[in-house]
Amino acid sequence: MREITLSKAVNEAIAEEMRRDPNVFLLGEDVAEAGTPFKVLAGLVEEFGPKRVLDTPISEPGFVGIAVGAALTGSRPIVDLMFGDFLFLVMDQLCNQAAKACYMSGGKLNVPMVLRTNLGATRRSAAQHSQSLHALVAHIPGLKVALPSSAYEAKGLMKTAIRDNNPVVIFEDKLMYQDKAPVPEGEYLIPFGKANIKREGRDITLIGTSSMVQVAEKAADLLARDGISAEVIDPRTIVPLDEETILASVRKTSRAIVIDEGHQSYGITGEIASRISEKAFYYLDAPVLRMGAMDVPVPFSPALEDLTVPTPEAVAERARQSVRGELFHAA
Amino acid sequence: MPHEVIMPALGMAQDSGVLIGWLKAAGDPVKAGDPLMEVETDKATMEVEAAHDGFLTDLSAEAGATVPVGQVVAMISDTPEGSGKPGAPTEAAVAPKEDSKPDAMPEGRKIIMPALGMAQDSALIVGWSKAPGDAVSADDTLLEVETDKSTMEVPAGHDGYVAALLAAEGEDVPVGEVIAIISAERPDAPVRRSRAEASQGRPEATESLPEKAAPAIAAQSGPAPKTTPAPRTAGAQPEPKTRSAAEGGRVLASPKARRLAAEEGLDLQRLVDAGATQPFHVRDLETLRQLPAPQPAPAAATSHAAQHLTADVAAEALDAFLDWLAKESAPATPRAATLAAFAAAAWADAMGEPGAVQVEAPPAAAVQYAPAQGQPIADLAQTDAPAILVLRDLVATPLRAMQLGAEATPVLSLTRAGDRVHVTLEGQMPPPVAIALLSGFAARLADPLRHLL
Questions:
Q1: The Cα angle at residue B315 between residues B309 and B320, in degrees rounded to 5
Q2: Over the stretch B79-133, which tens digit does the pLDDT of each residue have?
Q3: What is the DSSP code (8-state) at residue B78?
Q4: Do residue A36 and residue A118 come from a single domain?
Q5: Domain match, A204 and A314 both
Q6: Looking at the structure, do residues A303 and A203 belong to the same domain, yes or no?
Q7: A200 in any annotated domain
Q8: Strands A76-80 and A24-28
Q9: Which helix (H) or strand (E) holds B127?
Q10: 8 A C-beta contact, residue B80 and residue B57
Q11: How far is CA B80 from the centre of its chain?
Q12: pTM exceeds 0.90 for this model
């Protein structure tokens, strides 16, 4: 099978959906001629023209508001938010308007909008362009949240997001745009709420999101050398979350580590760990562990920035402690 | 079916609205959606629409009235005549807090503590700007209040005279509580009192009295501190203590290890006793399964469970016998020797061998006798042979029943209630022996002359 970059996979997904459905259009800062700073959307304006690929002024609240309005009136906008950090600017449009329109209209209104943005640190972009803020939107009922972990996932999830009749926020890891993966030529969709068991294992379940899936897989390689068999699960979407696959895995392995690049406190890791503790408690042979980004603004210093995110070595070490049955806290 | 028209809540922190005017007259036909009345809150003036079709009837509030939110102001009825009942709910709803007051209040408009913030429950009265009896106009500042956010002046809201001030400076007053009355006419007997004074007149308020009285008292000498809830630390303190107590004896084990152990009937404590390192996990259960089966208690094979037997006999014969023996023997035979002789004889009968008996009759020191078969009681001498039986003579004490548990030596205890003597045997011996021993001893107490035969 051919291998393409995650960037190309997203581009293909959007182009295919724009060809399929004339109501789909793109808007955002630098999406047309520039094709975004990461060149993800390069070539789309040439094919679909400036009426379907709209460059907007630098006003996130304005153009996300436009997208919500367009979605309410029958279009299927894909709004591009250049950095996930800019979510703070569009909270009302996204969380108070898009997320609630269907509910508050008694189902009469839909917001078939995709907000594509990114997450991920270690790109030396400093504290305001390096955050992983998907927990912010996952907290809001009415928004679906997809976290592709590879080019294959990015294409299938993006196509599903565009066809969804409700607002979807899709976070790509900005460090993965050039990562290649096998992606079939033909059309495929990846359903929301269906986790992917990336690797089967016996001793511990590693649940990773976005680029942390790769971290978990590398940790599993390290653990295999020690004879520890780790199962790696990619939830793909955190809203909806495929709880059943996660719980079934933990019931089998009795141990779990949840890895996510958002800040550890009050985040995705805590939510998933908590569901495991609540619903698979009597199957647990060790405390469920969380590994998120350090609770600090992401440092600009490369040496410091690299310390703030989970690494395969750190995950493997925590997994060994868990399997050894260490006392993680003096009860 | 008639429908109630109430003063709606038009704002988040709104307690009442001013009915500016009716837009329909009593008896008018109305349709749902028709404007019924105009209402003014502190934020806005707006029209209130009818929610039902029918006829507007039973108007119970006049234009200009300040009406608490939720109070019925009219009905929408099926006929222009309406229910014929006056606005019954009105009176009850006007000021429920006032109804319980024992004393009469001047007539007039009731001024309530306003809600100045969204999350405000109460406000502190900093000071009154008017005194009872003063004339006020609507815009005059009536009082200054302090919330957790700010201090602000509250206008009187109505023209008239201050007929009553119902809370004192320094008092914290819940939002919605009536704090003043403004009358249209100059009041004959204006009232001034604090909430604390008011609650003293109301027995149902006593339990909250101390808290409420405090700021009132403080207000005499100066600005009062705001009442704050009692510090929570006091209530929270015992918790860590119990937790640390629980930690001491708790076996640390994973939920899964505990569940499997419970399913298999394994005792994790045995892993602790075997010196295994905590916390325990599923793999430690394998160690637990291979531990030797729990040893039965060491003495179980040779000994018996502790026994506790009691007997009850009339004291009359024993008393008479002891009196007689004391008279007939010289020097007088000690009571202890008599009892020891009976006990030793019962022991010999039950066990088939003699033995020494230790008699304890506190506060006297314990004495020991080793009566031989047929030996006259009067001849018994104290011995220091190891006792096979202890006899506790507790008839002089108020004790009535014994249950001390088995000791190294079987114990016969004597207690007394009126003319009955109660005998308790505690020990570890074959049940038939215990029964024989106690029966034999009790029989001798009941009929001491038998012992002489």
A1: 140
A2: 888 765 544 444 434 444 444 444 567 788 888 888 776 667 788 898 898 888 8
A3: S
A4: yes
A5: yes
A6: yes
A7: yes
A8: parallel
A9: strand B122-128
A10: yes
A11: 57
A12: no
At B175-187, the pLDDT tens digits run: 888 888 888 888 8
From residue A82, how far is each of A119, A159, A237, B95, B207 by CA, in Å?
10, 19, 21, 59, 62
CA–CA distance, A82 with A91 (Å, rounded to integer): 15
Which residue type, as a one-letter code, is found at position B242? T
A295 shares a domain with A223: yes
pLDDT means over runs of 10, chain A (331 residues):
96 98 97 92 96 97 98 98 97 98 97 97 93 98 98 98 98 96 97 98 98 98 97 98 98 97 97 97 95 96 95 97 82 41
Residues of A in contact with B282 (CB under 8 A): 254, 285
Write down the ipTM of this complex.
0.78
Record the tokens describing residue A195, joined without a space.
């986790």
Six token digits for residue B99: 């109804």
**Which letter does DSSP use for residue B139 in this model?**
T
Q: Kindly list the residues from chain B whose CB atom is less than 8 angstroms away from the CB atom of residue A327.
A: 252, 278-279
* Residue found under tokens 């998933």: A272
Closest to A285 (Cβ–Cβ): which among B247, B257, B278? B257
Q: What is the CATH number of the domain that holds A13?
A: 3.40.50.970
Rounded to 10 degrees, the C-alpha dihedral A60/A63/A64/A68 comes to: 170
Which of A253, A285, A323, A329 is the mutation pick for testing B, counting most B CBs within 10 A? A285
Q: End of a domain among A127, A160, A182?
A: A182
Number of residues assigned to chain A:
331
Q: What is the dihedral of CA B133, B135, B138, B139, to 10 degrees?
A: -110
Work out how many domains chain A is built from and give that number: 2
Give residue B258's pLDDT.
92
